[in-house]
Design brief:
By secondary structure, the chain is α+β, with helices and mostly antiparallel strands. The chain has one domain. A hairpin with a 2-residue loop joins strand 5 and strand 6. It is globular, with a radius of gyration of 20 Å. The relative contact order is 0.14.
């Protein structure tokens, strides 16, 4: 597999993209009051009715707003919306509030570790190699029971709680694993504790039943919106020690209305090339990528990507081969395809 570093594509594309493509999209901030108004209005409505079907229906727009806030926080903290660091942090704190995620942790986890080493050995979001799977009981348990793939029903947990679980896990282990310095870790802990206190206060004020529909159900929906993109954006891609976004990332396509609601988060190859660019300009980048590297650009409809994610596995036998160690099934990652290979159960069985 021939790889080129991100800088190679950035140099080539910067020469041809209009200057306006790199400008900040400050109007995206209007999403913030819209999402907050939806959450506040629907939460108030939940407290006014005892009907659980109506409460469940009201949970849906709150969940959509939770996901939308996360997409806004993501784009803002990358620098695509506002310049001032305090403003980025403030929007990030509000946007990630439903997930108890600190902006400090997000910058170290996503902004530095993930973007700097996407699908590499130090990417905290990458699924494990077969060697790691075989040697770690903890990794084996998480992959076998909570990762999407292998046609497991339990894989849906990765969608509906995955973002919350991953952020909590990195908060707990961040300092020990070297992701966060001591001061950063303490700031992240304080931020997450403040968010937890806020939601706990809301639960006390409106009562546990109303809180379940105003926060619990929406949190599952928000997780699903975010994780449907996160999982498909990378988990059907090869592992790469050279950070080549055309190899280690996948753009997922969705209907126009859904792309609008999710702020174009599906344009992920484009995002990994230009993290500080608003996704509203990603279409221009995509057009240039398709024109220059049509055989290398990777894109798939979101529905197809989710189905492929469900039927394949999340362990890497090698950089371009996914395997299910329990069954021996294997798939070759080739462009936009996951090609089934002959199984090798004996070679993949985990060690005791």
């Amino acid at each position: 597999m021939s790889l080129s570093p991100r800088a190679y594509y950035v140099r080539a594309l910067t020469e041809v993209l209009p200057r306006a493509t790199f400008g900040r999209a400050s109007s995206r901030l209007w999403w913030l009051p819209v999402h907050l108004a939806v959450i506040a209005t629907a939460t108030w409505a939940i407290t006014q009715t005892p009907s659980w079907p109506l409460r469940l229906a009201l949970s849906v727009p709150i969940g959509g707003a939770f996901g939308g806030l996360a997409f806004l926080a993501h784009e803002t903290m990358h620098g695509a919306v506002v310049q001032a660091r305090w403003a980025r942090t403030a929007v990030g704190a509000l946007g990630f509030l439903p997930f108890l995620l600190s902006p400090v942790l997000w910058m170290r986890w996503h902004g530095a570790a993930h973007h700097g080493h996407a699908q590499g050995s130090t990417d905290p979001d990458a699924y494990p190699t077969l060697e790691t799977y075989r040697s770690s009981r903890r990794v084996r348990f998480m992959v076998d029971h909570f990762s999407p793939g292998g046609r497991r029903v339990t894989g849906v947990l990765a969608l509906v709680i995955g973002f919350s679980i991953q952020s909590t896990k990195l908060l707990v282990t961040g300092h020990k694993d070297g992701l966060l310095g001591r001061r950063e870790w303490h700031l992240a802990l304080a931020s997450s504790a403040a968010a937890l206190a806020l939601w706990t206060t809301l639960a006390i004020v409106i009562g546990p039943a109303a809180f379940a529909f105003a926060y619990g159900v929406p949190l599952l929906i928000g997780n699903a919106l975010v994780m449907a993109h996160i999982l498909t954006n990378h988990s059907l891609s090869p592992r790469t020690e050279i950070n080549d976004p055309l190899a280690n990332s996948l753009t997922v396509t969705v209907p126009g209305w859904f792309r609008w609601l999710t702020m174009g988060f599906g344009f992920h190859v484009e995002h990994h090339l230009f993290p500080a660019m608003s996704a509203r300009h990603a279409g221009r980048v995509r057009d240039e990528l398709v024109r220059r590297w049509p055989e290398r650009y990777r894109s798939m409809p979101l529905g197809r990507a989710l189905r492929t994610l469900h039927r394949t596995a999340r362990v890497y036998e090698d950089d371009t081969t996914l395997c299910d160690p329990r069954t021996g099934q294997r798939w070759r990652l080739a462009g936009n395809e996951c090609l089934a290979l002959d199984p090798q159960p004996a070679a993949l069985a985990p060690s005791a």
